[in-house]
Amino acid sequence: MGPYCQYCALRCFVPDPKRPGYILATCAKGMDNDRDQIGYDIDQARAEIGGAR
Questions:
Q1: How far apart are CA 50 and CA 6, in angstroms?
Q2: Is the distance from CB of 5 to CB of 42 less than 8 angstroms?
Q3: Which helix (H) or strand (E) holds 36?
C-alpha cells in the first residue's frame, strides 16, 4: 500500500524509474519537495527515461 504523503495526506507515491526501491510523489507539493531533495521529480524522471529509448 505505501506511506501517506505529508503534503496531500494521500498515498500519492509511485516507484522512481531512475532508482529502484525508491518512491516519488505525484502531488504538486510533494514533487516540489522531491526536486529540492534529490534534484528531480516524477515528471522529469519519466521524461529522462523516455528520452533514453
A1: 29
A2: no
A3: helix 28-38
